[in-house]
């Protein structure tokens, strides 16, 4: 990629490219070559103060929250056009900075960026920000106001996509924001900042400060921020929720998952199992909503294991720049160590490696793990209960449909799920029994971004996307209306 895209020297604060207060840098290392491919400044406390002050001033005294929804929508729609023009650069940067296979970059890294700005631009043109309510001889006006300054903290697996999931509704609501991109993959966030600035977002409304966990904690704790929107691990989410609780600060959390695919006994295993395995390998398994627990009827278990192993063994693994590659490297060496440790834990607990389980012999450089299928897994094993975040699926047998539903729900998480059946009505009845925020039926996913995304239990708090995503950046106010002000 062009060095201009890979080596950045400034932050975006207050509508301008701003030199950092300190000298610390974040090196961006390619997961496929293990070599440095880029660099950005790392924010200090002074940089955070600068960014929050800019956002605070833009919200308290600037035009953005005082514009009509239609005026904000026009700017967001223009940003969508500019982001589409940048899609090749966004895709190329993410291939280098976090190892996303180029064959999946459209789906994972750009597919819900520009369309999301279009969606919220259209939504706020018709959204009922004000409504009059009558109750007997009384009346009131209910208004929905922007929550204020929002801190947006995103992870490395889809850095610009997840930034857009937060920034688009926050900006549409009239908030100002400070985005902290992840230290492993900070570069694509700069392209978002460029597009928003060119679209005409007023100074201070969008601010960008890369950094590590310390910078995230400063933003969460800062008294000048009104809302935190976070995507990441459940452990980090609990910490953020605790800090926000000390201030009664608004917070939304999109956290981890250990999602189950329930394959009912009438499903066509020959097509269904390979489809599930293939989906679980998306982004090398580094997806919070991946269906990594596959629940299978015991009477057909051996057949399913054979199909899963064949499907995993056929997945192309290699250089993420190669269009033929499906599974690229994991984002960092620590992530590979984590995945390998979980595979070892599974085997020690009695699971069997049906496919994969090691490092590809033909890829001595890069943080690769083979697509792995674990058979003979019990739902009580750690590998079935904890998020691995790698190309590993667990095959778990069940005896009855009720047992399959109970096992799917027996998890601290509840982010996603799937049901497969030859009878779509039966699949829907089963889906209604799953304690999870989203369910795919026979491979059909909900129509994001038009519907909400989020989880039950430890998978999060609140929802992103859909009207719910906009509402999470709004506060409600009720005003009594005397007779002369009623419509």
From TrEMBL:
One of its GO terms (molecular function) is oxidoreductase activity, acting on the aldehyde or oxo group of donors, NAD or NADP as acceptor. Pfam families: Aldedh. Keywords: Oxidoreductase. CDD domains: ALDH_AldA-Rv0768. This is Acyl-CoA reductase-like NAD-dependent aldehyde dehydrogenase. PROSITE patterns: ALDEHYDE_DEHYDR_GLU. The active site is at 254. The keyword Membrane does not apply. Residues 17-478 form the Aldehyde dehydrogenase domain. The keyword Oxidoreductase applies. SUPFAM superfamilies: ALDH-like. PANTHER family: ALDEHYDE DEHYDROGENASE, ALDEHYDE DEHYDROGENASE-RELATED. Belongs to the aldehyde dehydrogenase family.
């Amino acid at each position: 990629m062009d060095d201009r895209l890979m080596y950045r020297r400034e932050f975006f604060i207050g509508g301008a490219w701003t030199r950092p207060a300190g000298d610390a840098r974040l090196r961006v290392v390619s997961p496929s070559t293990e070599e440095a491919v880029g660099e950005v400044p790392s924010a200090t406390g002074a940089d955070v103060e600068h960014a929050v002050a800019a956002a605070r001033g833009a919200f308290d005294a600037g035009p953005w929250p005082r514009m009509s929804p239609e005026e904000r929508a026009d700017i967001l729609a223009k940003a969508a056009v500019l982001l589409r023009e940048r899609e090749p650069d966004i895709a190329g940067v993410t291939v280098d900075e976090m190892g996303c296979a180029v064959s999946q970059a459209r789906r994972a890294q750009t597919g819900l960026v520009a369309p999301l700005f279009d969606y919220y631009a259209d939504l706020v043109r018709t959204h009922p920000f004000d409504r009059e309510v009558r109750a007997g001889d009384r009346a009131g006006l209910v208004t929905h106001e922007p929550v204020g300054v929002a801190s947006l903290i995103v992870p490395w697996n889809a850095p610009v996509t997840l930034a857009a999931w937060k920034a688009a509704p926050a900006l549409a609501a009239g908030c100002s924001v400070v985005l902290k991109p992840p230290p492993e993959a900070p570069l694509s966030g700069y392209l978002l900042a460029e597009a928003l600035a060119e679209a005409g977002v007023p100074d201070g409304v969008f601010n960008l400060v890369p950094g590590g966990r310390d910078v995230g904690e400063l933003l969460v704790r800062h008294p000048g921020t009104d809302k935190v929107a976070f995507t990441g691990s459940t452990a980090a989410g609990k910490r953020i929720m605790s800090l926000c609780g000390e201030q009664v600060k608004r917070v939304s959390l999109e956290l981890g998952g250990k999602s189950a695919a329930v394959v009912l006994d009438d499903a066509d295993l020959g097509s269904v199992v390979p489809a599930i395995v293939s989906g679980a390998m998306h982004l090398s398994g580094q997806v919070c909503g991946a269906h990594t627990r596959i629940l299978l009827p015991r009477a057909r278990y051996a057949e399913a294991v054979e199909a899963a192993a064949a499907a995993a063994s056929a997945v192309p693994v290699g250089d993420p720049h190669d269009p033929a590659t499906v599974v690229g490297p994991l984002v960092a060496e620590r992530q590979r160590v984590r995945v390998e440790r979980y595979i070892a834990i599974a085997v020690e607990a009695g699971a069997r490696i049906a496919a994969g389980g090691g490092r590809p012999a033909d890829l001595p450089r890069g943080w690769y793990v083979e697509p792995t299928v674990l058979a003979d897994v019990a739902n009580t094993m750690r590998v079935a209960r904890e998020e691995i975040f790698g190309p590993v699926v667990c095959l778990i047998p069940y005896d009855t449909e009720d047992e399959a539903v109970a096992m799917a729900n027996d998890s601290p998480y509840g982010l996603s799920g799937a049901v497969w059946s030859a009878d779509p009505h039966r699949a829907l009845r089963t889906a209604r029994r799953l304690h999870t925020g989203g369910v795919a039926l026979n491979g059909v996913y909900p129509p994001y971004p038009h519907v909400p995304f989020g989880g039950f239990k430890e998978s999060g708090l609140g929802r992103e996307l859909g009207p719910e995503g906009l509402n999470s950046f709004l506060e409600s106010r009720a005003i009594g209306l005397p007779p002369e002000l009623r419509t």
